[in-house]
Amino acid sequence: MALVELRDVRKTFPSHRRGGVAVEAIRGVDLDVEAGEIFAIVGYSGAGKSTLVRLVNALETTTSGTVTVDGVELGRLGEAELRRARLGIGMIFQQFNLMRSRTVWGNLEFPLRIAGLPAAERQQRISELLHFVGLADKAHAHVDQLSGGQRQRVGIARALATKPKLLLADEATSALDPETTQEVLALLRKVNTELGVTIIVITHEMDVVRTLADKVAVMEHGRVVEQGTVAEVFSRPREPVTRRFVATVVDAAPDAEQLATLRSRYAGRLVSLRVEQSTPQAKVFTVLAELGVGVEVVHGGINQVGSMTFGHLTLALDGEPAAVTRAVERLDGLAEVTEL
């Protein structure tokens, strides 16, 4: 069941300058985010991903199309109803957006006061949240006394204060070092698995997608150009923008520059094998040995995303030309082979 549904969503920002051109930030987006999953939205700067998330939490209104969250179409709500709807949508940010004048406790208490919880319930909820994110000993620390990772943990706790069904994370790890990033991603996975919170992650970091997400949508120029499970998109990216993103974390066939370097280094015939879950990798090398063909793996690698194994191996094959030709023909029955 979809918790978030977008249907033909468009958002145009009018120009504020005389004679200026309006900006179409979102162009006909259709998207479903199932309850209980972690859904990543990726794109380069200006792709429209941050505007899209502001439509989901109703900080912006659509120019046309519909945004439905938990069965409620946001465009039909008045301001008072929108405020209530936003209580079910938590938000965490790249720069944490914490109130520096307040302690950790005070930052968590603020949304609970706004929601109208009595003092005793606020105290119990804050204690639960601090223990959940591992900051029980920092309750009375001020924000400036915390590390970046600790500040983001406070941000996550604050986003969970009103027990939302949906959590939106907008570049939530971009300001963190790699080790702290992994800790925050582990906490977000805990939020998802233990609390059942659906998470939409806005990011340009494909390692975050690979580590955390179940599904991914790729945006370019305001459109969703490709989407699917992370394993599907990573293993067979179709669009050029997706291939550029995936190439940052997944080994692919060599590009023209890499190929020229390989040809200058290796005298053998170069072929690229696309390896998938069903590819009998041991058999590939057995065939080459049977035919007396020498082989070196000169580029690429094997990747694991979820339960799926895939990758590209570039091989330099050396031997009698007829034997090498027979080897390529035999390999073509075992894997997808491209001669380079």
Task: Chart the SSEs and their pairings.
Blueprint: E1 2-13, E2 23-34, E3 38-42, H1 49-56, E4 64-69, E5 72-73, H2 79-86, E6 89-93, H3 104-114, H4 119-132, H5 148-159, E7 166-170, H6 178-195, E8 198-203, H7 206-212, E9 215-220, E10 223-229, H8 230-235, H9 240-246, H10 256-265, E11 269-275, H11 281-290, E12 294-305, E13 308-318, H12 321-331, E14 336-339
Parallel strand pairs: 3-8, 3-9, 6-7, 7-8
Antiparallel strand pairs: 1-2, 1-4, 4-5, 9-10, 11-13, 11-14, 12-13
Helix pairs in contact: 3-4, 5-6
What do these coordinates show?
- By secondary structure, the protein is α/β, with parallel strands linked by helices.
- It has two domains: 2-88 and 164-246, 3-Layer(aba) Sandwich (Rossmann fold); 256-339, Alpha-Beta Plaits, CATH 3.30.70.
- The chain contains twelve helices and 14 strands.
- A six-stranded mixed β-sheet has the order 6-7-8-3-9-10, sandwiched between helices.
Summarize the main sheet. 6 strands, mixed
Low-confidence stretches: none
| CATH class identity of the largest domain | Alpha Beta
What is the distance, rounded to the nearest whole angstrom, between the alpha carbons of the first and last residues? 45 Å
Average pLDDT rating: 90
User: What number of domains?
Assistant: 2
What is the general shape?
elongated
Q: How many strand elements?
A: 14
What structural class should be given to the helix and strand makeup?
A: alpha/beta
- CATH fold group of the largest domain: Rossmann fold
